[in-house]
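Q: My collaborator sent me two sequences in one message, no labels, and asked for predicted structures for both. Can we handle them in order? The first one she listed is below.
A: Yes, handling them in the order given. First sequence, followed by its structure tokens:
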Amino acid sequence: MENKRTRQIEVSVIIPVYKPESFLWECLSTLDRQTLDHSRFEVLLILNGPREPYMSQIEDFLKEHPSLLCRLIYSEKNGVSLARNIGMDEAEGEYICFLDGDDLVTDNYLQALLAIATPDTMALANVCAFDDGEHTERPIYISEDFKENQRNVPCVLARRYFYVCWGKAIHKDIIGSRRFDVALRNGEDCQFMLLISDRVQRVSFTSSDVTYKYRQRPGSAFYGNKSAWYHLSNMMVRLCKATGVYLSAPCRYSFCFYAKYMLATFMGGIRQILHKKQ
């Protein structure tokens, strides 16, 4: 489904969708309430895996929200990385925003990000978490790097934002032809951010009322139902792939970023393994 365009698209919001639940309607509703003129952004819903009844449900929702400029794309192959890659290939916006289908954003989210993003500066919003079924918001580890209304900040001072792909606006020139590694099932967004980090010169922050709201649910991808051996092998693969990225162009990539990525990946893998043993 595709609504008619009336202006040049400035921001493409990419949302991978797999067997969507009611969370998706909440997510899309926050986009429909955006203060940014709806003709300036598009939403790309990449439905992957089973087609029905999800395709029909999404189409019915979009018919009830005609002001939302949305393209619904189906892929029979599932995987969040593949879905995001399809979205980037199809995106018409100058900037890319990634959004997970069970998360929420404040009404001023896109307008505020677009106001401070540039071709070499990544725009970052405030980030918080909330438990599924509750409305109380709380900071998460990424929040430690948030610096309200600060502009042109060195990337190393916002390194935690490079662990996830959401909560930000990224210019297409920064991304280029780089894509998510479809072989990774855990930590794929962190790997992607390391891959494009050589083209991010600086970062700028919105005000604190511009927020990406991360929904935490039981059985999330961080812990999930995987074995300790799975988490160990995945950690080793990620460390090897990250080293390959850095060694491919050591003069372009920051050794500090690479080292911090390696440490964070190792510590995250250990936490997952210990969690499985409890």
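Q: And the one she listed second?
A: Here it is, processed independently of the first:
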Amino acid sequence: MDYRSPPRHKAFMSAPAHLVFDRALARARLSRAHAQGAAPFLLDHIASEFPDRLSAVLRPFPRVLDLGTPGDALTAALAARAPTLLVHAAPVRAALGGGLRLVADEEALPFAPGSFDLVVSALALQGVNDLPGALVQIRRVLAADGLFMGCLIGGQSLQELRLAFAEAEEAISGGVSPRVAPFADLRDMGGLLQRAGFALPVTDVDTLTVRYASMFGLLRDLRGMGATNTLIARDRRPLRRAVLMRAAEIYQSRFADPDGRLRATFEFVWLSGWAPHESQQKPLQPGSAKARLADALGAVERKL
């Protein structure tokens, strides 16, 4: 069976209006970053969190899918828990030997319903064009009482870089082009999990501040992650040197610590939800309580 996704149009102007990211370009840049030696520190940080978050779940997961996580950091972190099928959106160099690997698209999962007991994903789903649809597909491939746990880049990430480039372009070019992608908002994620059919959805946010000697160090790391601008609406013209240098000046003046090093914010949105099962806790029906809240609190109830 051919699991490859159908080819996408190379002419961007013909792409549907709802597309945000050039997925073919994102795959190419991710492959190039791995071929040249990726900058894995964000992935290493996030991957180390997964075992701790899963440690509260005292049940086995015999069939595990790592969906789209660049590299092997998450698969390695979960190796003691269960063998994992690693699905990449692009063919990347594997650091680990053995294991099952498949090149596929996070937006077109080639698996039968109920194929997995656990689906994990780290720093991949923020780059899909249809996040609600991707969550629906994840829910579909989970067996009953299966767990999804994911982490994606959040809305406050790279806010310093976004502001510096916006001010620089406005001052020099008289307009602003999108340089930093729009990221997920924590307030929306719980609703998306519920719409996708997950039970007991949970979302939370974690923030990491990384410091650099200059803005150019941050840009090098973003290239090393394969995380440069792949927005379809991006300006295709080469970035003017004057804009780049002015952005570096604004970044230095606005976001430097007393020692002169610059802050870069990375926000991570964590998601988890279960495929529904009759054994799971369910909310009580309104009016079915057998005890009064006022009694539990030792308070006097006042009628309206």
